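Handout, page 2. Input:
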Amino acid sequence: MENSCLTHSKVTDDTYLLNYFHQFVKKEPVSLLTGIESELLGVDQETGEAISYEGDRGVEKVFYELISRFSWEPILENGKPIALKRGRAEIHLEPGGQLELSGTPARFLDEVKLELEEHYQELKESSLKYRIAWLELGMQPFSPLNEIAWVPKGRYKIMREYLIRKGPLSHRMMKQTATLQANFDFTGEEDAMEKLKVGMALSPLTVALFANSPFLEGKVPGPLSLRALGWQGTDPDRCGLIREVLEGPPKFESYLSYLLKVPMMFILRDEKWIPLENITWGQFLKEGFQGIFATEEDWELFLTSVFPEARLNPFVELRSADRNSLAVSMGLLAFWKGILLDSIARKSAWDLVSEGTIDDRKRWLHDAALLGLKAYIGGVKMSNLASLLVQYAQQGLRRLRDQALSNEKEIQYLEVVKEIIQEGHSPAERLLIHWQGSWNQNPLKLIEYCRI
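Output:
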């Protein structure tokens, strides 16, 4: 069952909130793990229409196949499987029926790749008779927004009603987008906050380099990462960039000072979702809400309702990249590992983008979604900066290899990223070349190219 907050461990001040992050510190570098959250878009393999949760060919049917054939255990809400669990891995549902694998954290990236490949195989076998294709794309390519059904989760009902008042693109973000998120452990407070800051500062370059969502409802509107634009039009209170992280000291207090000001959307009591209005976490912590007071469970739930480009939880989460092919996704993971886990590479990367106001950074992020590697940061083309960053990542992985924290396979994963930069075309531009050329704008060609 989902966390029902039956054990109400009350929280009364900031002490617990700060200690919460401290408890996840990994003292030894050899114990640092990498995790992923991998989202896929389900479509009818013959029409390209988004599949729904319910129905004769819906995600629910695929879930039951995974349960019966591959020993996944269901997590239920109102009697329906809305997530699956096996060991430390979980499969979750996003609001429009997207599937998200929350993988088993691993020391080396080849372990992550093996788990992804196993996930793909199980998913393909479980979807075969329903004629569902799972796409490695950042945006549903064909179905109109209003034709994509909502997943029946109480949390999502509250979110969709709340967020549409905050941003016009919030429902597009919720129902049509997909990402591959990279997660990294940290060795201490300063290490965590430096990773968070650098990950956030590099988000425009990550958007540009891994842009893979140029299609919307069967058309090509022009932007290369429509997924990133969707997030930028969702809710400025809880999405985007965090001034306190980028400009403040490398302390958990910097992140907490931001979180205290973020409005809440819901709490969970006795398996019932309760919507909240006009109350920040800081206010809830001090005053409560209609006789309900903050608990540890509320805090953990609240952290999952904040969506900046980089996020701190039990690990540092990098959330800026579109969903891409497996090869490009492994390149993304190697890129982040080489830069963030090696302190020299991390400092070099920060030095590239250290100058800029918060408004500058928001503009860079927006331009990256529109133009990809042809956008600029401080007068320098993003393709040139990306080339330097990949060099730093490769050097970082080599130093990590010398400490037995990386290996040659991880360095090789960067080759596909180098190819993107050398060509000067993001994955989205590669798709458009095919789409407007040999594919002759045939949806079936796109589905075949992007399916797992």
